[in-house]
Amino acid sequence: MTENKKKILEMLAQNKISTDDAYRLLSVIESGESGQESVSKADANVRGKAKYLRVTVLPEAENEHSGNVDRVNVRVPMSLIRAGIKLTSLIPPEARDKVNGALREKGIDFDVRNVKPEDIEELIEALSDLEVDVVSSKGEKVKVFVE
Fold first, then answer.
1. 78: closest CA among 51, 46, 115?
2. Of 74, 76, 86, the residue nearest 121 (C-alpha)
C-alpha cells in the first residue's frame, strides 16, 4: 500500500474526510498509478514548453547605477502550480463549501471539486502565451511571462 493511500485511510478513520471523499481520492491515486507513464510523458511535454512563471521589476536604467533601487525577480515553477491545484481534492468539505460560496458571491460559478488534470494542463498551456510588460512613470519595468 502506498503512503498516500495510508494517509487517506488515516484521515477517514479520524473522520477528517467522508467516505465519498476517501473513495474519490483513492480512485485518483489508482488512476494515476495505472497511467503514470503516460502522465509523465504529458508532463514532460508541457514542461518543455513552460517551466516557470516569472515576474520581474527592474529599475529605470539611470537609477540602477545609484545602487539605491529595488529589484524583484520571482520565478514560480509550473510544477508548484500543478501541485497546488491538485491539492484542492484534500480541502475539507466545510472549507470547500465556504470557498465555493465566496466565489458565487463574486459572480464566479466555479466548484473546486470539478478541477480535472486536463484542466490544469490547459491552464498551464494558456499561461505559456501570457506576457505582460508595464513601464511606470518612474521608468521601472514590470514583466510577467512564462519561460
1. 51
2. 86
Grid coordinates representing 143?
514583466
**What's the whole-number mean pLDDT along residues 136-146?**
86
Read off the pLDDT of residues 79-109 as tens digits, 9 standing for 90 and up: 887 787 777 777 888 888 898 899 899 998 8
Phi, psi of 99, rounded to the nearest 5 degrees: -65, -50
Report domain extents, the chain. Answer: 35-146
Residue type, 10: E
> The whole model's pTM is what?
0.47
Burial class (CB in 10 A: 0-12, 13-18, 19+), 10: exposed
At CA 85, angle to CA 82 and CA 86, rounded to 5?
A: 85
- Distance, in Å, from the CA atom of 92 to the CA atom of 112, rounded to the nearest integer, reads 11
Question: For the segment 105-126, what is each residue's pLDDT rounded down to a tens digit?
Answer: 999 887 877 777 777 778 778 7
3-state secondary structure of 42: helix
